[in-house]
Write a structure and sequence with these properties.
94 residues, alpha+beta, Sufe protein. Chain: A, three-stranded antiparallel β-sheet, 3 strands, globular
Length: 94
């Protein structure tokens, strides 16, 4: 898997990605329309106190169209796991 990227280039469709790094496991569904990320759904997110990372991280990824966004303070591991799961969806699609 490649690391986070500033620019994702994906074909339209719905893709899934997962990422596991203790103590986090994240599965996401990423929707691409007109070559833009239009929606990211958390399918599952096993975490300690990282639930608060979900909405801000997803919003930043969609806004910036990038998996390289700032982590949520106090939920860095979960933020990074969400970014990585979205990146996995992008890599598998490519």
């Amino acid at each position: 898997m490649t690391g986070p990227t500033d620019k994702l280039e994906m074909n339209d469709g719905i893709y899934t990605g997962t990422f596991l790094k203790f103590p986090n496991k994240v599965a996401v569904r990423v929707t691409i329309k007109d070559k833009l990320i239009t929606d990211i759904n958390i399918i599952s997110h096993f975490n300690g106190k990282g639930k608060k990372a979900e909405k801000p991280t997803i919003n930043d990824i969609i806004q910036k169209q990038s998996t390289k966004v700032d982590a949520v303070t106090g939920a860095t591991n979960s933020s990074n796991a969400i970014m990585s799961a979205v990146q996995v969806a992008a890599v598998w699609e490519a």
